[in-house]
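Z., the sequence and structure:
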Amino acid sequence: NGGGMVTSVTMSGEGLPQFRRALNSPALSLTELRSGPGIQPSPSAPGEVVEGASASIRAALAVLGQARDDLLFVDGGTHLGRLPAGIGRDARSRGVRVRRVCARGELAAGGRDATATAGEIRVLDVVPTTFAIVDSEMAVSPLTVTPDGQVSSLLVVGKSALFDTALALADLLWERAQPYATWRTRALQQAG
């Protein structure tokens, strides 16, 4: 089902019904998604599951588009629904710091044009999972992915023990990863 649907996991918040309507409406621009209602997770029910490829992409754009200060992508090879390349540019144009930790294999295989993603990039040999942290307040992660790499369900997590774990992992991976320029210089030296 390409349109998808949003399934609540016992979640409340004033913006949630509007968020669901926005997800189930026709395609919206990044500006419309960014200015729309957000997810207001309560501490007792911090998660929202979004099902369907189209709804998952719209949900990811809506959540990522709300970033005010910092977006940290932990990219284990599942590209959050192959989001439009403009998501990073849009965030940076609003003064948001955009960071990405990715696996060496992603860059070495040419699967990622690091200069096109811009922002700050760091590289590890292996990145164990894929998710994004938005303003140290929310996380978004693929739950299921189709064989062709499309995210078919997505998890959005607010402040909770699960979120704290994701934030700690993201910070740890960021600190341990090599800056892209350092990695690229070493990779070129080894190849040449």
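The chain has a mean pLDDT of 73. The beta strands are 5-8, 47-51, 70-75, 97-103, 120-124, 131-134, 138-145, 151-157, 178-179.

Let me know what you think.
H.
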